[in-house]
Structures are given as structure tokens and as C-alpha cells.
Amino acid sequence: MANRTVKDAHTIKGTNPQYLIEKIIRTRIYESKFWKEQCFALSAELLVDKAMELRYVGGHFGGNVKPTPFLCLILKMLQIQPDKDIIIEFIKNDHKYVRALGAFYMRMTGSSLDCYKYLEPLLNDYRKVRFQNKMGEFELLKMDEFIDSLLQEDRVCDCILPRIQKRLILEENNELDPRISALDDDMDDIESSDEEGEVREMAREKESPHKRSPTRRRSRSPVANRRRSRERHDRDRDRHRRSRSRDRDRKRPRSRSPRRSDRSSRRHRSRSRDRGGAASKDQLDIKEANALRAKLGLAPLRP
């Protein structure tokens, strides 16, 4: 009896609201401790207090398919089927997990028009939300990412979401206005600031018409050009003269200087004198040796 849908509940998508969650997951929720302790005899008024106690979102985790409190409360909302006004207040609530709970329930039970109408404004909510994956580990998501997954994906928090019409079809049928992104407003502000900057620059140029532009270069005077050309011509002429003098020196035969010739003659004379003195000394030595040999009765030496 505790797991049955209320008697006055309306069918959603042509079926019992609780059947929107798969049977295996629904059975695990009925067997969970949180369902038996926290969700028993829970009314729409008491549901708000339980939603305020949520600290993360997620589907089931672990090998034995343990449901999260978020998924248990979703099934309880499908069972008691609260009014649409209560769900809208959930979505407008500042508590991020209460808002996520209301958005998920609206995506499960609401029409295509209601989903786009009430969920798209939440895309401007960039607060961080804790998400528990199938391994039981926690991840960080942004609220706009969670809402975008509800509008774009077919399976969120291990629940198969009912199909909704494409937004383009609703716009073509004039049932929904074209969505204006917050980025468009930022782009408009940037474009307006750029236009204002251009207008200011044009006004400054008009105020100072005789001001020379920074890119314009100053032309050289003709007098300075003539002076530079003359200096360049003089340098070229001096360079040409030096090269000609070097060529002449190379072609001219080298003549010895008188100083060098005197030095060489002196060296030659000194060498000849040294040679002559050595010869005279040898002759004297030979004569003395012959005289000594004659006294001794020996034959003289040949000169």
C-alpha cells in the first residue's frame, strides 16, 4: 500500500507516473533504507523539508544498484503527484538542490512547452552542484550543465526521460518565442562600446585637423640630400685614389735603398777580412812548424 500511487493521480504519457522509472531501479528504491525511513507517509508539504536536506544529485551507484536520496524523492513525487504550482515554486527556489529536484520532475512529467518555458531560464544559473556517479564518486557540475542535459539528452540520473518536441518546431508553430541568450546581450554591449570608441576617435580627429598622423614620415630636405651625396662622392673618390696608388706600388720594381747597399758592402768586407786573417795565421803556423822540423832533421810540411 505504501508504494502505490495516490488514487486521484493523473496518468502521465499514458501510463502510471511511477512507471516512468525503470522497474529494476524502482524495486531497488522500494528496498532502500532511505525510502523506508524518510519517504514513508511523506506529503507534499513535508517534501519541501526533505528536499532542503539534499546535498547532491545522482541516480544509482555501486554494483548492487543503490539509489541516491535524490532519486528516491523523485519517485516519491511521482507517487504523490504534487500540484504544478508547487513544482514551479521548487524551480524558483534559491536552494540549488531543491531547484534541481523541481527541474528534473518537470522534465519527467511536463509538456514540451512547459519544459522549455521553465527550464531554459535556469541556464543562467552557474552555481556548482555535487553529482554522484555510478562508481559512488562525487563530481562537480554546473547547474546550467545539468539543465542542458535535461533538455538535450535522453537519459539523466539513470532515468530514461520522455521525449519532447524540438524547440524549432515550437517556434515554427508560434507556440514559443525564439530564445535570447545572455551572450547576445554581452555581444550587444561589446558592439555598442566599440561604436562609441569609434565615434570618440572621429570626434578627436575633427577637433585636431592639423595634427599630423603618427604613421606619416617627414620628408628630407633637398639641401641635406645634396650634402650627403657630396660626402658620399668624396669618399668614393678617396677610395679610388688609394686603390690606384696601391696598384702603382705593386707594378713598380723594387730598388734597394743606399743604406741597405752600404750595410751589405760592409758585411762583405768584414767577411773577407776575417777570411784573410785566418789564412795569414795558418801560414805563420806552418812556417814555425817547418823551422822546428828542420832543427829536428825532419822533412818540412807542404804549404
From TrEMBL:
Name the Gene Ontology biological process terms: mRNA splicing, via spliceosome
Q: Where is the composition biased (Basic residues)?
A: 211-230, 238-258
Q: What is this protein called?
A: Pre-mRNA-splicing factor 38
List the source organism: Bugula neritina (Brown bryozoan)
Q: Name one Pfam family in it.
A: PRP38_assoc
Similarity annotation: Belongs to the PRP38 family.
Task: Tell whether Transcription is among the UniProt keywords.
Answer: no
Task: Provide the function of this protein.
Answer: Required for pre-mRNA splicing.
